[in-house]
User: Which sequence fits this backbone?
């Protein structure tokens, strides 16, 4: 995914791109005019779409191997010649995962502000950068944008990939795609179709690539061979390479093509169905690759193994470290070199990362399937990925993020019959996704693990029960409390019956259940369970066991939620001391204990101490998890609350708006964390007498909390109380009294007559009724 730019007045922050020798040196295909042969179409592109000085999008479409990429490449060179200071960005758009990796590399290479944040949205960063006038002239090329669903499907941020395309008067976007429908979707009417080359251009192309150029003198044989190859430039180039490598004639190659014709047509009939190609049409590109592959098998078995392995994972951005180790480093290097020589794979710049052509990838999968070897290599890919992907861990995040797209690819291709062999890999992937705060995706994989363990080990096996606890945990992190509690309660009951009350699995499950109950403010029920878990953990596991410390931290959070700050502070300090000694200061466990202490300070109105620690926690969380991680956003909201408590409303509002925007993007507008942030912002508006803005937010929060949590949930009742007070300030007395009466009735029923929130609502209602609605 190269980024190219020459020196200009806009390059002050791009020191690494100023050297002219740097230009295009990472693009997988060098400039090659003889490969194009599309002068009229190139002139049209340059004149109609890139010469107007305004925004333009164009799609180049045609059959695979027709030379679309080469046309786009030549166009890029022409633009550079005409506009030397133009920024050219080349992005392979084969898959969502590969495209995400490309964006990340680009923003880092361009040194765009925010690129150092591991959780930054690279697509949004590049978009914002390119729409600025300071970005200068640019050309953005998406190569192999064949999957239209990838562009129109919403991501976890509820945006389509198309939404991230920059729009600017000084930039242009070019797509190459095999799918005409995708071309129209991406570029509307601006579509240029690359038709097959004619025989004359094909012969000249073949001649230019052959070592023995006199072979083309047999024009009849050459034309027959081009007919078999459909005059596709890529097929011609690869055919010439094979002929050169093996020192054979055109007739020999023609015989090889015809000999395997039937098998190849059947082999690729499913994968290469295309509305623009008749069913009986041959796929000569695949024939060429099949011949080359068989030759590779004969010459280097390790190279053939690598190609088979790569057919089961993502075709792009394959780290060499993911490939199974060869007998020796030299043999592995030679094998990759052979695949590169046959153009089956290409290196990305000088990095140890490989790309495989998409059609080579599909052809290899079909070849493996036809030869009953696909299952074997799928299993090999699962085994290798299980070896290299750790159990999450923020320290190894840069490593496992490279492997995750490949793990998800191989897991997505396996059917239910293969689930058992993937349990370990799915659990590792889930643990990595959890570290990244991608709880919904993590739940998907750990649910699969739990279901498979049920079938294989039984519902009462400890591993099955621990998997179910993990599923409940992921649901609770998404704010799905009722679902999480129902599952966790069943798990605890089963585990206690089978394993006994003091088994570690039972203790972890019970702690998780207590936390879920506590999060729903059912204090009395949570307290007994938490105290039992902590006492048992200390006795069975010891005071300094990580599980014991987690239980102590959960108990501390229960205390501060109940306003028992002395007990909470004591526990927080104890866990902080132990965790700092055991894990170091910059560890998620230690960070959680520091954050707990800040909450205690806040509740004790020790705001200066709270703010100092919260600022430190926010900085550490941003560094460990990334700015958009849910834990970081939670700390951002906590710091905003401290500003609010000190009447620093402007600072609180600024931070709350930022947190709300990020939470909406990361977790969704209806997530409970997002609603909490929305509620806090409404309180800040209210404190600044901006009642209209407060009322708008509170109305939305009440509607969503009522639907998601129910009218009787304490959080819903809090919003109901706040909205009633806001209505009084807006002069809507009758509505306010009616709503507060409902709030008091529900709080008395749910929380009790003597509960503090109930007493506060009752006091305000009585005051309104006795003083004639005065606030």
Assistant:
């Amino acid at each position: 995914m190269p980024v190219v730019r020459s020196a200009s007045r806009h390059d002050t922050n791009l020191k690494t791109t100023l050297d002219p020798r740097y230009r295009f040196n990472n693009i997988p295909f060098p400039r090659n005019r003889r490969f194009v042969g599309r002068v009229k179409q190139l002139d049209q592109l340059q004149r109609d779409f890139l010469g107007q000085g305004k925004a333009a999008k164009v799609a180049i479409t045609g059959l695979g191997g027709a030379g679309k990429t080469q046309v786009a490449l030549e166009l890029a060179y022409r633009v550079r010649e005409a506009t030397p200071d133009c920024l050219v960005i080349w992005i392979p758009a084969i898959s969502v995962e590969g495209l995400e990796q490309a964006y990340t590399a680009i923003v880092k290479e361009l040194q765009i502000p925010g690129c150092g944040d591991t959780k930054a949205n690279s697509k949004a960063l590049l978009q914002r950068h390119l729409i600025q006038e300071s970005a200068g002239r640019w050309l953005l090329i998406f190569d192999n944008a064949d999957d239209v669903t990838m562009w129109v499907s919403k991501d976890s941020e509820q945006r389509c990939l198309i939404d991230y395309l920059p729009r600017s008067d000084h930039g242009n976007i070019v797509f190459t795609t095999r799918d005409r429908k995708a071309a129209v979707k991406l570029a509307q009417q601006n579509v240029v179709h690359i038709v097959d080359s004619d025989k004359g251009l094909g012969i000249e192309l073949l001649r230019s690539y052959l070592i023995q150029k006199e072979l083309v003198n047999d024009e009849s044989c050459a034309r027959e061979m081009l007919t078999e190859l459909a005059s596709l430039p890529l097929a011609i180039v690869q055919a010439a390479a094979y002929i050169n490598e093996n020192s054979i004639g055109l007739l020999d190659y023609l015989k090889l093509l015809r000999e395997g014709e039937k098998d190849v047509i059947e082999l690729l009939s499913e994968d290469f169905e295309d509305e623009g190609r008749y069913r009986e049409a041959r796929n000569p590109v695949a024939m060429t690759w099949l011949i080359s592959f068989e030759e590779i098998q004969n010459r280097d078995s390790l190279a053939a193994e690598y190609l088979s392995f790569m057919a089961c994972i993502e075709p792009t951005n394959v780290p060499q470290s993911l490939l199974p180790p060869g007998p020796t480093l030299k043999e592995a290097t030679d094998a990759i070199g052979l695949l590169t020589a046959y153009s089956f794979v290409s290196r990305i710049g000088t990095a140890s990362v490989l790309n495989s052509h998409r059609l080579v990838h599909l052809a290899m999968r079909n070849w493996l399937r036809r030869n009953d070897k696909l299952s074997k290599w799928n299993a090999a890919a699962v085994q290798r990925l299980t070896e290299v992907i750790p159990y999450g861990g923020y320290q190894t995040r840069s490593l496992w993020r490279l492997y995750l797209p490949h793990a998800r690819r191989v897991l997505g291709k396996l059917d239910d019959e293969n689930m058992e062999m993937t349990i370990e890999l799915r659990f590792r992937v889930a643990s990595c996704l959890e570290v990244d705060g991608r709880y919904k995706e993590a739940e998907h994989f750990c649910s699969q693990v739990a279901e498979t363990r049920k079938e294989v080990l039984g519902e009462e096996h400890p591993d099955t029960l621990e998997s179910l606890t993990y599923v409940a945990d992921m649901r609770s992190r998404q704010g799905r409390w009722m679902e999480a509690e129902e599952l966790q309660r069943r798990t605890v009951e089963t585990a206690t019956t089978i394993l006994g009350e003091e088994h570690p699995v039972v203790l972890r499950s019970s702690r998780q259940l207590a936390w879920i109950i506590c999060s729903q403010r059912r204090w009395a029920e949570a307290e007994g369970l938490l105290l039992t878990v902590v006492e048992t953990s200390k006795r069975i596991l010891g005071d300094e066991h990580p599980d014991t410390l987690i239980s102590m931290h959960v108990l501390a959070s229960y205390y501060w939620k109940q306003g028992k700050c002395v007990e909470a502070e004591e526990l927080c300090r104890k866990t902080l001391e132990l965790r700092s000694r055991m894990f170091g200061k910059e560890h998620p466990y230690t960070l959680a204990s520091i954050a707990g202490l800040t909450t205690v300070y806040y509740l004790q109105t020790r705001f200066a101490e709270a703010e100092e620690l919260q600022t430190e926690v926010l900085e550490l969380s941003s560094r460990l998890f990334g700015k958009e991680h849910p834990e970081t956003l939670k700390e951002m909201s906590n710091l905003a609350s401290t500003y609010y408590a000190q009447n620093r409303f402007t600072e609180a509002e600024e931070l709350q708006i930022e947190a709300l925007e990020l939470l909406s993007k990361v977790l969704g507008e209806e997530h409970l964390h997002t609603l909490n942030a929305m509620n806090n912002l409404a309180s800040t508006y209210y404190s600044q007498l901006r009642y209209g803005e407060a009322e708008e937010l509170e109305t939305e929060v009440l509607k969503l909390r009522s639907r998601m949590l129910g009218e009787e949930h304490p959080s819903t009742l809090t919003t109901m109380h706040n909205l009633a007070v806001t209505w009084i300030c807006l002069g809507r007395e009758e509505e306010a009294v009616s709503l507060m009466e409902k709030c008091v009735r529900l709080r008395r029923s749910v929380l009790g007559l003597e509960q503090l929130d109930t007493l506060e609502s009752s006091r305000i209602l009585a005051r309104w009724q006795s003083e004639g609605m005065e606030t």
